[in-house]
Amino acid sequence: MTLFDEILLKTFGVLLLGLMLSLVLIFIMHILMPKKVLKTYFKEPYFGPGEIAMFTGFPFGYMRTTMFMMALAFPAKGKKRGVENAYKLAPVWYCKVSKYFFIFL
User: Among residues 2, 11, 16, 67, which is most buried (max CB within 10 A)?
Assistant: First the structure.
């Protein structure tokens, strides 16, 4: 095996491990998502009826969790949808974990 092949294999392994770790963390954060945030902001006018139907079930529910994690970690990112104050409803630890997740992602 050449040096290039070893580097390529190790890089692929690290990226795959990082992806798996990210998916596990998003799954955990999906379970721990504050219900108060969902009840307040996961409705019209913040989301359209089609988006609410699509982001309710599997697999797009995890995408909704990631969107809210981004809005909780960096409130300016939620300005377009009007959820920039969502961080006030979430526990501080959830916002911090979300922020560290996106910084180290």
Answer: 67
DSSP 36-47: HHHHHHSSTTTS
pLDDT in tens, 2-59: 999 999 999 999 999 999 999 999 999 999 999 999 999 998 899 999 999 999 888 8
What pLDDT sits at residue 32?
94
3-state helix, strand, coil in the chain (%, to 5): 70, 0, 30
In a domain, 12, yes or no: no
Give the residue numbers spanning the domain of 64: 28-104
Residue 5 lies in a domain: no
